[in-house]
Amino acid sequence: MDTAPAPLAALVQMTSGIDPAVNLATVDRALAEAADRGATMAFLPEMSLLLDRDRQRSVAHIAREVDSPWPAALQAMAERHGLWLHSGSMPLLTDDGERRVNRSHVIAADG
After folding, report:
1. Which residues does 106 contact at the CB level (< 8 Å), separation at least 6?
2. Are strands 84-86 and 106-107 parallel, antiparallel or unpaired?
């Protein structure tokens, strides 16, 4: 009989807003708390890094995935906190930069 504890997942609840830096700081604090409580995986909500109904204002923050700082920031957080991470979704641009898309990522605990 295996007596190892079952893996613990954290479901991050947050109120995302129009400032990605504030949202990333909130995510980082939530991941630190999840890791401290023994979680091995965390799930972020949809649009956790930017939630802005004003398309003109939000355009300054949205980039192609290869140009966006968000995936790398989440990879660094996953590694720092030793957690697997599901990014929820984040707004990005298609590779040609013509359309907005939502992307989700699963990031290993080693980033």
Report:
1. 84, 85, 86, 87
2. antiparallel
